Amino acid sequence: MAKSKNEPQKQFGWLKNLAIALAAMGGIIAMQLFWPPSGSPLRKRNIASSEELLRQEQQEALRLQVLKAAPTFGFDNLIADWTFLEFLEYFGDDDARNKTGYSLSEDYFDIVTKLNPRWVDIYLFVSNSLSIYEGKPKVGVEYMTRGVESLSPEIHPDAWLVPRYRGIDQLLLVGDIEGSIASHQLAAEWAEGTDDEQLVPLFENTAEFLRQDPDSKSIKINGWLWVYYQTRDQRVRDRATKELLELGVKKEEGEDGEVKFTVPESEE
């Protein structure tokens, strides 16, 4: 009797089922390893004292160090997602952060940008949390460079955002003018042909102005205005407002609460 065409699939179908079972088991192991333990500050919000909070912060720091060295079982993107969600909980706990600061942000994003450096949307958080909140713009630039080295317009149409964020931090917070020029030139190249092509002249002009006048006040003003309008985080906006006022920009607030900045004519 001739064998059915489906018979080989039936004979070896158990291998497929075994592979699915092993993958599921790997996922369970990964969840157990990577999910915050019961004592993590991410699971316990009723903190009795600063001492207890610091102890939990140390536990979380240790867990993140273990996570950096642990195998991912092929779940790189999934673990990056979880780690970013953990960061959001950590970052959003204002009471705890007022006592311990934001030092673990560096560890969270070290993991996320290594496991999924092509995740464009997280780099704004890298810039805000590391460069402004934690005061480590060089680390932020290092992590954003991972994205620049892994992305292209063909991979993601908004890839230009990453060199733009990096270029802003290099200019305003690191003082790396040559690096900022290169970043803005790359942002211009990557924005070409995308839905944001209208920004290409802005990036090209920024690079050219910096070549001609590395201390250009107008470029710094435009940079801080970009920072202000790119975020909804009040602390970042407060920092941008402070820098703009020191650069001579005037701030006005309408009755509806809308903020308007007026740039001095000499700087336009």
Q: Give a short account of the largest sheet.
A: 2 strands, antiparallel
Structural class: mainly alpha
Radius of gyration, whole Å: 23 Å
Determine the fraction of residues in helical runs and give it as a percent range: 55-70%
CA-based shape: globular
How many helices? 12
Tell me about this structure.
With 268 residues, the protein is mainly α. The chain has 2 domains: 50-116, no CATH class; 117-249 and 264-268, no CATH class. The protein has helices at residues 7-34, 50-69, 76-92, 94-100, 105-115, 123-133, 137-150, 161-174, 177-191, 200-212, 217-230, 234-246, and strands at residues 250-253, 259-262. The protein has a two-stranded antiparallel sheet. Helix 8 (161-174) runs antiparallel to helix 9 and helix 11 (217-230) runs antiparallel to helix 12.
